[in-house]
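Q: For a teaching session next week I want to show students how multiple molecules come together into a single three-dimensional assembly. I've collected the sequence lines for a complex. Could you give me the predicted structure tokens for the whole thing so I can convert them for display?
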Amino acid sequence: MASSTHTADAIVIGGGLHGCAAALYLARSGLRSIIVEKDHVGRHASGVNAGGVRRLGRALPELPLADAALAQWRNIRDLVDDDCGFASPGQVKVAETEAELQALKARRETLLAHGFGHEEIIDAKQLRELVPALAPHCVGAMRVRGDGHADPFSTMQAFKRKALSLGVRIFERAPVETLQKRGGTWRVTSARGGLEAPVIVNCAGAWGGRIAGMLGDYAPVEVQALMLMITERLKPFVKPVIGAQGRSLSFKQFGNGTVLIGGGYRGRAEPERNLTHLDFGGLAANAAAAAALFPAMRGARILRCWAGIEGHMPDGIPVIGAGMEEGVFHAFGFSAHGFALSPIVGKIIADLVATGAADLPIGAFSIGRFSRPAA
Amino acid sequence: MRRIGRDDAPQVTIEFEGEPLTARRGDSVAAALLAGNHRSFRTTPVSGAARGPFCMMGSCFDCLVEIDGAPNRQACMIEVREGMRVRRQRGAGDIGLGHSTGGGREDTP
Amino acid sequence: MKSRYDIAIVGAGPAGMAAAAAAAGHGASVLLLDEQSEAGGQIYRAVSRQNFKDRNILGSDYYEGLDLVSELASSGAEHVTGATVWQVSPEREIGVSKDGTARMVTAGQVILATGAQERPFPVPGWTLPGVMTAGGAQSVLKSSALAAPDAVFAGSGPLLYLVAYQYMKAGIPVRAILDTTPRANALRALPHLPAALRSIGALMKGRRWIASLRAAGIPFIKHIEDLKLTGTDCVTGVEYRRGKRWRKIDAAQVFLHQGVVPDVNLAMAAGCAHRWSAAQLCWHAETDAWGETDIPGIAIAGDGAAIGGALAAEYLGRIAAHGALHRCGCLGRAERDSLAAPFRRALAGEMRLRPFLDALFRPPRRLRIPQGDATIVCRCEEVPAALIRESVALGCLGPNQLKSFSRCGMGPCQGRFCGLTVSEMIAEARGVGVAEVGALRLRPPVKPLMLEELAALAVEPVSMPGKR
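A: Of course. Below is the structure for the complete assembly, covering every listed component.
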């Protein structure tokens, strides 16, 4: 082990998008941070996700954050000097039956009651104009204009580059070995030597529960391997990102013509070995859902299937906020929809560290909502 | 390319780019096209460059053509059938989907 | 096709045919899956079609394959033709498509006999129509009796000379053979010559091809150091350099070759361990004496594990079959060992020549790693060499990260024609060994799979997504 000790104002554990965003905003607040990453930056969920930037269908507590994040995405170049491939062709959730459409309408009413008007209902004719390739049986949809997607890789690179340019130090291939508090200082040992700072930010994604445990907190993270598949390049035929009320499906065509198909179908994760295994039964169900909504896709060919390791919380919303011990902050467990939130969560964490308070309501994301199971 | 060897093999007629093309039973589509002195089978989706068969064993995916309306078919791996309609693959595959008109790159309220 | 077999073999070339024939008849159910419409693989492609009355054109080595084909046919193994295998899982579930229907077949033992493919030859213009591999030229010669008059053959290695020789025998004019075998290789091969001399017959065969080509007046230009293929919509010429001098010849058809490498995609996607071979400049599967990989029940036989040629592949196929029979309880240890013994001896004899051939036909660095910036490395995504070097300069450490940096390796060929080049290029740019850089991580399906085939796959999901 190297004997040198690095000091900083904060140690960020996890070099994914959330870790880099937190470090970036800390730097903007004048705080020096070091990111320790067990593999390399963006190796896991940050690098293999679908890049969705949506408000559609989000849980209520996430909506203020998603709204604020979208404003950041629209001007993402101002933040990271790169457009991150962001496009906002809208997101659409399709209803295939009247009952499904009613459920979407009910959801819209709930959101309106809470002051959110971004989800609008469109009828079958409007839907067909928007997405001519959809199966004719679809009866309508929920549409959110302004939602869209970004390119995960260029986003990850841009956040990393910007963080580095602001003086953030990134130690890759440096898994955290021990975590101890002495006096007011956290001491981390890793393959890259010792690190000391008064603040620890846990952005360890699927490994966030383990790190939380080392910090004296408890969070029941379920590690999942979400599967995705991508087709050969096809001529452009769909612009918005498509989901479905009655099926687990996420369907999106990139600018290069490839179509990404997902929907939360799970493979098997081996987080300790960085390995994932596919379940072709799940992929078949996912393909069937895509083929049912886009009949002409039946002859399109799948080139690759893969799965990424991601941390899920039992209630499907992340952990964001302070830990039990002083100087501990968490942002993990985004349950496969954290990509869009990364810029705002980075800002929230930096605000918490710098001022002890956030501008947005984050009470619902407290780590204290989970209680340790009785021994 | 020139046909050598036995000349008693049964013939099959296919269509390439709308023109009839005589092949031998057992020929791959790629072989049939090469026998008709066609070397360029497609254009790439990235730069529009011309491509033809390269490996002839199903590994390189450079001999992609449209067969009976289905895009991106490997000409070297598919045998000719009487009446088969073959066209050059032009850029990305077109699977006959309607083209999106609504919602542009920016669809803001 | 049933849903379960004791032994499943992928690929009906010499290794797969021999493995299937050897495995059948011992009480095990044996399935042989192959993409082609008849047995033979690449080396014995279409051997049973009788495309040529004159057997001298393709030569007697080719017709040796007829024995294997008939041995397979009478063996009792179930040979499924037109079957594309697109995945093998560590649990030995084989994803296979036939006639537009995909299914999963489970096997107690799997033998991958996926054979070899041409080594990438990334020179300027290698993507032009009219440029094919020498193996491709031979495929279409064997299966459809097609040949290209006045073609230029460029590169190095026995297959290049053999195809030119077969053209000559068929009376097809050959414009020139541009031999890129480096002058220094002969010296490096010399230490392996004594062992090789014990296979003097095979050694002389190659010399005879070259001598005959020269005697026929075909220009055979040695020690070519650089190649460029020119043309816009199709290849029209070849530029080549010897020493400082560039020359040009016109050509409407060029056949390239600089050896073959294992087709590792299926084995790598299954997760089988591989190591870099400095002698053969490619990935070799880690296998034991019976061809078994580090994944229990998955073996690799023949050129798919390491290049040894058709006869070695046949022996390795039989050895792997006996290993699999033993593992599935159909053969005792002693019986396995004694049945495999003659093939081990034959294999040892066959492999004596290999180190000499590997050294003599080792492709030079400058023809494995593009020297120019504009040369295409990834044919599918049209990624030029410059973009790969830039990505390394930006911090890209290996081929898997390079996918995100450049889309290199993300097209339909799944890195088959850029993977080796990319690993070597990154290693060179970083100044580290190829083993440290690693190989492209391969994802199933290893061959594209139609969405409707996947959708109709009769496999129950382990879990379904929960609604939020």
